[in-house]
Recover the amino acids of this structure.
């Protein structure tokens, strides 16, 4: 003490340092907890992209076959199984519906022990 008054020292007290570290640790823990969520979302996006590519390649194959040569098919590509089914379509207002087919590509895969499915549709005309 100088002349009966507390002298202020420059610097941080122990309590200020502990509070600053506690806030920093809470922020870091929050960021670390987000990593598994981000990894799971990234993995899911990768699987969905791959699944879409499988379906797109089958849809392009259907387009190259043409109306007469399209048939029910199934197969596998990587971790994905695909199946093509056909439906004759008769939309409203169409005089001759015999020239239109609906081709459905069903893609299935296992993810986390569960079977997942997704379907993609294209219309093929004569």
């Amino acid at each position: 003490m100088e002349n009966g008054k507390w002298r202020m020292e420059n610097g941080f007290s122990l309590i200020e340092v502990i509070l600053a570290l506690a806030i920093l640790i809470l922020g870091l823990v929050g960021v670390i907890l987000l990593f598994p969520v981000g990894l799971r979302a990234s993995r899911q996006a990768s699987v969905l992209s791959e699944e879409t590519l499988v379906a797109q390649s089958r849809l392009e194959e259907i387009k190259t076959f043409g109306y007469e040569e399209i048939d029910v098919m199934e197969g596998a590509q990587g971790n994905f199984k695909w199946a093509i089914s056909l439906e004759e379509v008769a939309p409203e207002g169409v005089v001759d519906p015999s020239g239109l087919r609906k081709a459905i590509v069903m893609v299935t895969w296992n993810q986390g022990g569960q079977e997942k499915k997704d379907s993609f549709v294209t219309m093929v005309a004569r």
Observations:
- The chain has a mean pLDDT of 85.
